[in-house]
User: What shape does this take?
Amino acid sequence: MFKEGPLPAAIHGLAEYVGGALFIALPLLLGYDSGAATAASIIIGVLMIGIAASTDWGLSLNNQIPKPVHFAIDWVLAAVLIASPFLFGFSDESTPTAIFIAAGVLHLLLTIATRFGAKADTERKSRATSSSSKVRSAADDRAVARGSGSGSGPDEKRLVRDGDREGEAPAAPSTGDRSSARRT
Assistant: This one.
């Protein structure tokens, strides 16, 4: 997908929440003269917080934006931040121009340095598999318990695990792998 940087996605998410809040607060704190700079700053701040809150990672509120899409949005956002003073006509005001260009460059560097990869997704899938394996294993155990005591005849099919036969030592607890269970 893309190279892995040294920063975890959680740090990236925190930085976007803080950066978004700063973009909302800076026009009020620094008193931008340009209405366009104030509007652009507040809109970009809200977008940054919204995107961070909607991305599929630990700090999200609703997990709607996949990480690769967030990665692409970050590139676009960095370009918009750098170009904003010129696009929205406030390049003659030095404070917001410097803030927007610096924030764009910093956001670009943050995006490059972030590990957006699928490690967390792999961990989540393995946790889901292991919990469902436990559920399958418990269901298999219940099936063995139900089928082992009836002894109704030769046509009865019963789930037998390794070590369930007479004279064999019991097998280690199953991890839910159905290939270890067989019908006899």
Summary: The two ends are 47 Å apart (CA to CA). The longest helix spans residues 119-148.
